[in-house]
Structure prediction request, 120 residues.
Amino acid sequence: MEEQVAQKSSELEQYLQRVQELEDMYHKLEDALEDERRARQDEETVRKLQARLLEEEAEKRSELEQIHLHQQRAISETEAEKQELEKERLAKESALQAAMKQLEELELERQGALEQYQVS
Prediction:
C-alpha cells in the first residue's frame, strides 16, 4: 500500500509538473500572441505614416512643379522684355546715328554757305 501511495504521489507530482509546464507554455503563447498583435499594430501605424508622408511628398512635388512653371514663364517673359528693350535701344541708337549724320551734313552745308557768303 505504501508503494501504491508513493507511486500515486509520484504520478501526481509528474501530473502537476506537466500541468505547470502546460500553464507556462500557455502563458508564453499568450505573450507571443500579444507581441504579434502589437507588432501588427506597429506595422499598421508605420504603413499609415508612410502613406501620409508619400501623400505630402506628392503635394510638395506638385507645388514645386507649379513654382518651376511659374519661374519658367517669368524667365520667358523677362527674356522677351529684354529682347524688346534691346530692339528699342538699337532703333534709338540708329535714329541717333542718323540724326547725328544729318546734323553733320547740315553743319557742313552751313559752313559752306557761310564761306560763300564771306567770299561774296
